[in-house]
Amino acid sequence: MEFPVFAPSSVCFSSGKGGVGKTSISINTALALVDRGFRVLLVDGDLGLANVDVMLGLSVQTTMRDIIANDEDPRTVLVYPEPNLAVLPASSGVPDMVNLGPEDQAVIGQILQVLSADFDLVFVDVAAGIGPSVLWFNTVVHHNVVVITPDPTSITDAYALIKVLMRDHNRRRFYLVANMVRNEKEGIQVCQGLIKVVKKFLNVEPEYLGFVPRDNLMARAVRDQVPAVRSAETGKADEAIRKLAARMARGL
Ligand SMILES: Nc1ncnc2c1ncn2[C@@H]1O[C@H](COP(=O)(O)OP(=O)(O)OP(=O)(O)O)[C@@H](O)[C@H]1O
Ligand SMILES: [Mg+2]
Fold first, then answer.
1. Span 131-167, pLDDT tens digits
2. What are the φ/ψ torsions at residue 82 (nearest 5 degrees)?
């Protein structure tokens, strides 16, 4: 079955390996793009263990699951932490949602298409791994961003994800973001290493999109439930995220 590609520009943040910073980066980059005048829809695509709402300190009553199971109106499920940022929350602790079948995927695809008409950008933050829902979200968006860290297992997992998306889903353009690096130099180095291997063995060339340094501000932001770019403190991480947002604002 063919699925629709969302009308506005859409971006999926994935990684293969868990805990590399997908959710932190998608939330903060979304907010930095809001600051640049974009209206952003942030979809919590981590269908089994949702946490976009937790990281934003939101109180969520209904989720994507209510749209599927109870025909809830998709627009009433959206939560607006700010006028130009909407979150489509997912449910947590509902194993059924992790591996959606084609019918539910088609429903979510339609919902996203309807909702996305009101936005300039759609971000999807997916779960770790290469499960069916992760792969599906990656195939209905325009752009695939893969988050890596200097950890070798994050790099091999990212390679595996790119390989599956290429081989089985015909995706050919990938953007890399290096998180938890010391500085931009290390970010570029880590990405270049993966780009070289992907180019050699898979014959596509992912593009370096940006880096986010390891910064306590990011960890504290999660604990305080206030994203780094909205924190009163500023640091290296939010500066890098604003740079990443500026790069994305120019178009992928
Ligand atoms: N640049 C950074 N510097 C320091 N800590 C970070 C950074 N980025 C993320 N973290 C921390 O790493 C942890 C994991 O981040 P996050 O939840 O965003 O990762 P994830 O890839 O979405 O994880 P999952 O695979 O479980 O969905 C969080 O505690 C977060 O605060
Ligand atoms: Mg996450």
1. 999 999 999 999 999 999 999 999 999 999 999 999 9
2. -145, 160
